[in-house]
Every structure is written in C-alpha cells, then in structure tokens.
Input
Amino acid sequence: MTGQEQSTTVGQLSTPTNGDSRVPATLTRLVWVLWIVSLGVLAVRFRGGGGWEIAGLVAVDGLTAVMWATVTFFSGIVHSYSRRYMAGSRRIDRFFGRVFAFTLAVMLLVAADHLALFGLAWLAMGLLMADLIGHVEGWPQAQAAASLARRYFLASSALLTIALATLWWDTGATTISGFASSVAGASPTVVLFAAGALLLAAMVQSALVPFHTWLLASMTGPTPASALMHAGFVNAGGVLLVRFAPVVTADAGVMLAVVLVGAASALLGKLLRTVQTDAKGKLGCSTVGQMGFMIMQAGLGFFGAAITHLILHGFYKAYQFLSSGGEVEHESPTKTKAKQSGSVGLAGVAVIVLTALAGGAVFAGLTGKGTQLDSGVLLVGLVVLTVMHATRDVVTQTSLPTLVRYGAVPLVALPAIAIYATVYGVIEGLLSGLPAIGQPAELTLAYGLVGAAFLAVYLAIETGVYRRSQRLYVALLNATQPPTDTLLTTTEDYNEY
Amino acid sequence: MSTESAIEESIDAAAESVGAVWPLHSFVTANPLSGFEDRPFHEAVADAEELLGGGGYPSAETFRRAWEGGQIDPEILRDQLSANGYDADPEAALDRIEAGGASDSTAARSPAAEQVDAVLTKWLSAFLDQGRAEWPMPNREQGFYDAFRTVAPHDGDVPGNETIADLPEQPVDAIRTRLSEYPVGEWQDIFEFQLTALPGWTGFIKQRAADNDAWQSTYPITLSGYLAVRLTLADLFGAPLAPEEAPGDADRSAKTADGTVPLPEVWLSAWEATYRAELVDSLTDASASVAADSGSDRPDAQFVFCIDTRSEIIRRHIEATGDYETHGYAGFFGIPMRYSGYDSDVTVDACPPIVDAEHHIDDRPAADCNENHHRTYDRWNTALTTAEKAMKSVKSNAATAFSFVESTGAGYGLALATRTLLPARVYDLADATDERLPGDHEVCEPSVDHHPGADDELPQGLTLEEKVEYAAAAFELTGWEQFARVVVFAGHASHTTNNPFGSSLDCGACAGNPGGPNARVLATICNDEAVREKLRERGIDVPEDTVFVAGEHNTTTDEVELYDGSVPETHEDDVEQLRADLATARAGAAAERAGDMGGETETGVRETERRAADWAETRPEWGLAGNAGFVIGPRELTDDLDLDGRSFLHSYDWRTDDDGDALEAILTGPMVVTQWINAQYYFATVDNAVYGSGSKVTHNPVGNIGVYQGNGGDLMTGLPLQSLTSADDEPYHQPLRLSTVIHAPVERVTAVVAEHENLAGLLDNDWLSLTVVDPTQDHRALHYTGDLNWTPLTEQARTEAPKPAATSTVADD
Output
C-alpha cells in the first residue's frame, strides 16, 4: 500500500473532447466589447454630449444609449452563461448566432429613426426570438410553440406597419423624429387610429393579457433564451411607447387606455401566477404582470419610470430564469397551513407605519414622483404598501432579536429605494431630451379607481378571500394553459438525444 | 371482476408496467423496468417498448463507436454472433441493427387522447404540487377523485364538464360505469393501456400511494381515483378507452417465442464480456497474491466508504498517502432510519428503497455544545428564514411585487454578473461564510438513544440490542479483523448549484440523501462503551484506544470533512494527520475527476470547486456514470488496480464468513440496489426521452416533485442527458449491464442464489451477470450461465451463448 507501484487501469472511459467550435467564444467576446462601447456612449450622453446620427436613418439619443448598455449587458450575461450551460449542445453555434443577431436587432431598433428600419428591426427581433423558442429541432412541441410565437410576432409587426404607414400617409414623415413635429398637425382620427394600433403591437410584444399565451408557451426554448426573452424582448412594448410618445400622448383617452390595459395585466398576471406549479410558468405569469405595470407607468406619463422598471425587472427576471434549476425543495404539507401568529404591540405598529411612510417619503423625495397631486401619487402609494408589507412580515417574527425586528427593513429597504431613485434619476436625465415624455397625467376618478383596484387586490390576497371561488381558480388555471400541441404529453416525442 | 377489491387488484397488476417515480428532492434510484424483471431481458425490453415506447438497446451508432474504440473484443463478438446464429461479420451486423432501428415509428395518437392527457396533466400538477403554488387546488384534502369531482365541473375546456359533478361517490363505480360495454376479461388491458399513457405521472402516483408519505396522508390520491378520472375524461373527449387490437401482439409473441436473442443484445453481451474479461483477469491475478499475503500490521487509520463507484477513486488516493486501510460498505451504514435535520419539518427515509425505515432519528442540539455557538446558529437560521419569507411574501402579493422588483433589481444585476463571470469566487464566498458560522454538525447530534413512548409512527432512537446488531453487521459483512486507532465512517453527499437533479448525485443507498447523518449514527453507536462490551461478547474486540469518527465525502469536490466534535484529546494528533493526508488525497482525486470531465487536471481542486458553485454548470460531476462492475471481496483484490470509478466495491472476506450469512446479506441487499442503479443509468442512456429526463437546458421544475420538458405535459423521469453524455453526440456512460464479481468459493455463492428466487430470477433473466473468482479452486474464474450452472470464464468467453446456456456444469449445489 505504498501507492508508488504502477497500477493497472481497468476499462478506462474515454475523456471528453472539447469539440465546441470557436463561434461561442468569439461572439461572447464581441458582445462584451459592444457593452463596453455602449457604456462609453452612455457616459458621453450623460455628460450631455453625443447626439450622433445618420440623418433620416439612425439617431443615437438618450434612450438608445440606455437600451444599448442594458441589452448588451443582458446579452453578455446570456452569452457567458451559455458557454458553460449549453456546452455540448448539438446546435450550439446556431444558438449563439441567433442570440447575437437578436442583440444586434434590438440595438438597431432602439437606434432606428427611419420608419422602415424600425419596422424591420421589430420584425427581425420577433423572428429570431421565435427561432430560439424552437431551438430544439427534432421536437414537435418546440416547433409548435415557435410557430405560435411567430404568428403573434407577425401580427404585432403587421399592427406596427399599419400604424407607421397610416402616420406616414397622413404626415409624410419618414422618420420617428419627424413625427414629433408633424403629429400636431395630423388629423386626430389618424393619430387615434395609429396610437391604437401601436398600443396593440406593444401589448402583443410585451405579452400583456390577453396576448400572453405565446409567452407562457415559450418554455421550450433553452433557459438562457428565456432569460433573454424576459429581460430583453418583452421590453419592446415599453420602448415602442416611449419612441412614439408624441403619437400616444396626443390623446388623453389613449393614455388612459394604456393605463387600464397595463393595470389589468399587472393585476391579472400576478393572480395567474398564484395558481402556477411549474417554475418557468410562474416566472412567465410574473412577467405578464411586471410588463403590465411597466406599460401602466408609461400610461401615467412616467416614461422614464417605465424604462427604469423594464431594466430593473430585466435584472430580476434574468436572474430568476438562470437560477430556475434550484426550484426543487423538500417541503412539508403542514407548513403551508401554518399561519404565523402576529402579536405586534403598539411599538410594532408604530414601526410598521413609520417605516412605510419613510419609504414613501424617500421615494417621493428622491424621484419627485408624487410630490404634486398627479398620477405619481399612485406609484408612491404602492411603495408605501410594499414597505409596510415587508416590515410587518419581519416585525411579527417575534423570535428575532428586537433590534433586528424593528431595524432590518428600514435599514435594507430605505437604501434600496434610494438606489432605485438614483437609477431612475440617471435614466430620467438621459431621456430628458425626448419629445412628449415627462408629463404626468392629472389625477382623475379613473386613476382613483385603478388605485382602488390595486388596494382591493392587495387586501384580497392578504385575507385569502379570493380563494373561496373555485370558479376563479379554474378560470386562472385555464387562462395559463399552453396550447395542447406545445405540451410534451408523450415523452417519446422528445427525441432530441 | 365486479367486486371492488378485484378491480383494485387488477389496477395494481396493470400498474406493474409503470416504474415508480420518486419526488426529485430525494432521487431514489430504481430500474424503470422493474415491473418487467420477471422475464428475460430481451422480452422485457420488447414488452416495454410496446407499452411505453422506449428503446431497450444502445443504438447502432453507440455500438459502432464502442467497436471502433476497441471496447468490444472482435473475437468475443464473432463467437457470440455465430453462437446465436447470426452472420459473423460485425460491419454487416451493425448495418442490420441500424436498419432495424429506423422502423420504430409509433402509431400517432388520436388528437382526443392528446387533449385528455393535456387536461389530466393540468389537474395532476395542480393536485400533486408540493408547495409551489400559492393558491393550491381547492378541496385537496378530500383526495384527488373528490377534489376533481367538485372543482372540475367549472372546467370549460372539458366537453360536458357539468356532468363531472354527477360522478358516483366511489371511483370504482365510475370505472365500472365507463367500462360497462367491455367484457370484464379485457379490463386489465384497458387499465394498462390507460396507466401507461402518462407513465411519469402514473409512476409518481403509484409510488406516493405505496409509500404513504406526509403529502399522501394529507392529500390522498389512489390509482383507482386517477383511473376513474382518466376514463371519465377519455369518454367525454371521445378518446379511445381500450387499446386498439394491436397487430404487434401477435408479432411480439412470435419475436420471443423462437428463443433467438435479438442482434443488439448479442452486441451488448459481447461488449459486457469484453469489459468483464479485463476486470476478471486482473482480479484472478490479484487473488493469488492475496492468498499469499499474511496478516498485515495495524494500519494508522481505517476508512469505511460507501460502495458507490466514486468512492473507488478517493479510496485509491487516500491509500496512497499513508498506511491507511479502506473498506466499502452500503452508504446508509446498515441503519434503516427516518431522519429529520435540526429544526426541519420534513423527514427523509435515509435507507435504500428495498428496506423500510425502522427508527426515527433526529438532530438535536448537542449536549456538550457551546451555548453561544448554539445561540448564534439559531439566530442566523431564524434571520435567514424570516428574510426569505418576507421576500417571498412581498414578491407574491400582486400589489407589492412591482415596487419590490424596482428596489431590488440593481442587486440582482450585481448577482447576475458575479455568478456568471466569477463562479469560482462564489464558491469561496460560500465557503468563507460556512467557516464563520457554526454548521449543523457542530451544534447538533443525532438522537441515537431509544426514547420509549415517543409519539411517532416509528420508534424513536435505537435500543442497545439494535445498536449492537447494526455495529456487528457492519464489521461482519466487511470481514473486519483488526481495528486501527482511528476508524472513519464516511458517508457521501454532492454539492451542486442550480441543479434539479442534485439529489441524484447524493447517496443512492440513502435514497438520494446525504449519507453523513447515517455515518454519524454508526460512529456514535461504536463509541458507546456499552455497545463495545456486547460486541466483545460476540467476538468483535474493539481496542480501548480505537475512536470512531464520522465524516462526509463531498463527491463533487472530493473533500472529506471529518466530524471531530467527539474526538478525545488523545487522538487529536491522529486526526490532524488524517486531515492533512485527506487534503493530499483530495488533490489527486480532484485532478483525476477534473480530467474525466475534460477540465484542467493541474487545477483539479479549483475546477471541481468551480463546478460545485457554478450556476451555469450542467455537468457538476459525473455521478455514477460509467458504472459497470461490482466487486465483492477484500480490498487487497483491487488495491493495485485503477478501476476508473466504474466499479462498486463491497468489502467481504470469505474466510470470516463460514456460514455464508454475510454473503447472503450482500447479494440480497447491496447487489440488488447496485443492479437498480446500473439499470437506471443503462435505460436513461439507451432512451433518454422515455427512461431519462432529456436535456437540462429546457427543463422546467414543477411542484417540487419533478421536471417538465418545456411547457409541461408528462413528468420526466430518470437521469438527464448531461449526466450521461459529454456532448449531445458524445456518450460518456457506457450502457452495460452490471458485471458482479465475487471473491468466494463457488458453492457458497450457488447456495445463496438457490435460496433466493428473486436473485436467481434476475440472473437467469440476464438483468446482470455474475462471476466468481474462487480462491479454493486455484483462483479460477467461473461465470454463471443460468439455472445454477457455472462455466470457467476463459473457455466461456469463446463459446458462451447468452441463452440457453453452456453445457459443462462445473459446480452444482
């Protein structure tokens, strides 16, 4: 047992060869280079410089810079992650090619000024994403899901084309920047029609209810493709509204409609999520809700907030997708029934209320939202509610040391809100040159109703009263069912091995 | 079959065709074709293909690769081809397999049947969810059938959904109504046809109903309840209830009746025989030198590892660092326990599925533990769970989720970048945190002592007699003769990130759970003075100065952690030395295993650490991939060999086992479990869609119990593609049936096999092979050929036909 003697090897297995081509590595490097360039552009823009353009074709403005930096970051993460995650996949080169091409399409979209270029980039995004959903070639369910998504994206492209063609026909402008000045003189009916078509296109791309089916049936794509979809693709609806803000904001009625469809999706998406049992389905429903909220922010006139939301949500959702493999835990059936007892005491109530108000104050003070009596009040209200909710959860945890119970949330939440406010401030500043944004809507009864709806849903979920309706349960479950032909009910069909 | 019990029985019989599926958090290894083990291998795979659609043999492509890679001995192959009446030209044979494989198109299913499956998977995932949905299916506590009966009438996706409310109260009555048009004699075929439609879900229901775990007792589901729902839906959708008159049936019996072995099986046998010949040759050589070896001196320390194939690598490297002796023993250390961690509200049965848990053991604060330590531990735990709970609650409420995402988004961005770009740093971070905080095993100890009257299904703890029994079994089965100053029992566990199949890399003998707790229990028992007293009476003399230490082998990083809380001062130096040597051994083992994964060997430890913590890594370690052999015998037989982590090793000494009891225990226990593990790897490799889980890159975890591929549908079962292949087109695992080699007199083996019908059945039906290296017959190798007959291996390799067997009976009973 000296270990020095030469041992005989029995039945040695062959060592894996590193057969992957150079495509993934090259594209990964390239996309990170693009990120660094984008950061440079962003920095120059932030200092008020830049403003490059090829007249009539592309124009690099604040939105372009922000979205370039964002999308190249997500794409870089997805590239780097996939180099290990997708290692050994049969069509890995094609996968990287599509992801990279998608990145370029988004970069083109946010820089495009010419209408045709914008429309083409929009179409290309959709087709590339549909291809990624159907990445696994020999799998019929993946192909069915891909063609479903493709149909949706073609429809949104058609809607976009109709909107752009109508506007062009009426105003003669061939560029987005041209609209800013010419929309004022256009016929209100045309503008209303175009705005409606734009809103529909945005809803499809952002998977708002009732156009969410393609998103919930898209899980046949590899996980990193889903991450890119939820962090980079669904945002297109928000970008569209910001780009065409002069058209969309021309009519207050349209803006109200944007708020309503956004709010409906926000609340429904979250309700749909409650009945999901699969990790990616849950994330999909959550995206439906988050995109609804983002569109609602745009409808309220806070376009900067919408862009901030879609970026921060992208971080969150990409993370959730890329870590979705961890979603298998051993739980006990009885734990779900256990209700935590909450004797809070007067001090506890005071802490909860004060922390919540402080959260709202920090948010309003740093972002300027809700300091006037406009639709921003709604957003501040939600922040107060969130902080209150989190504080209550921790304060009622009586087994924790008092200092932690009372201090943890203020210590964590207030700086977190401040960070949000900083990001928001930067983006707001970058977008400041864009036409027709930054006009919060006036507070009307309709917004009051939206606020009331949020509060009602909050209370319904807190008290669990909505769970009394079995009919609602079935309705939610059925609303999230992917079409039958995208479900792998016979595993032999999955012959990709 | 009109009585209720007759119908239930018939359903259970029909469900035999579907392999049991365990929840993914405790990945229990089982042969997916265990219901077919009562017939010869080639019939079993043919029947399974008919029912489940899965292929049963490696593809022509796989054989060609093995053939060209020299893994199949041409002489053995030619002999076996001609012995079975096939043309002896290998290339032509491969072409024939290829041509045969192309015609396996299965009949397209009716669209109505697809709809039935889609609706069923919706309701099954809703009902069987284990804590994922915030709003679980209503009325679950009434059981599946009743919950469906009351909730599904609202399901507008089902034609005639209102009628669901009128279903009879008893599922059996519903079944009877739906099948009234069919003769009772056809019912079992109908049940089988319906139960094999969604084998993943059906297998899960079957397992859950049989094991009666906490979820089952809270939300019961039965196969008859499921079948009643299934038949109802099939009727409403107009899908076929009974299988079509399968033309395949006649075909099938024709295929198997003439007794010819299918061509792929001949290739498979030749491939196995080639590996076996190499293994057995080395063992026969070693056997002679073992006999010559006289008793050795007392080693510095002894280790007991699981029989797991991965232990072979670390054992080799540990032995190389000093005067150490290592043993192989079932990784649950013979203790059939139901275990719950400290402060945990779930229990796991940490024993193989062929054994029932008999004792409840939980982790309790250690008596001699530092009070401060314990408080810190508690405080951290509460803080963490509170934070987690608060996050979850804020995330899930419709009104608060949006602001939550905005406030935390930047943090997630940072985490995205760190985990993706600096995965090895993530390991360091976790490691550093672990070091600062007290761990479970430092502040807790297992409740080993018997507590009569504990309110529990199982007795709490172990009585003295039971303790002695388990300790003695460990030493008797492994043929233990002398004790070193330190004896380490090392369980094993894996460490992976973002991996739904993490538990498939944990200890198979502990039902997909870490083996550390079991090791701790056995070490505690063996350190007990009262137990040692009794052991002495049984002739097992543990010296005063022997200390038993538990530990856990991390199979991903090859780190062996020692739980040294109870080591007396006198042995501190020994343990210190051990620790240093374990670090050296780890470096060697990690380098070897990093190389096996195609990584850099010079930075082996770092590479394995990165793989453990990297969320983008789909191949954190190879698990038991490559497994092909099982050696039952003393370590001296194998300690000069590098078995490349492909062989299970169970220590056994025929000289200390005159009555053959130890051998019997090993063959009926560990050998059956290893055969299941081996079959699981085999079938997942030959048909990864039906018997495996497909590629990880499109996995979608569902309900804490399993994974979907993509959007949903049937539950995927078995190992994922990345556990078996180094690339989509490059297999790593070689699909070979288990080759067991026993170092013992052949009569003794025959006696055990003759005694156990199930063992003889498995062997006679070619589910695994058995070879004996007989130390009493000049170290000759004898191969089992069925019906308790043996043939000398050297000649056998040339003349053996897999079935019917050879003529020369070397030994009989």
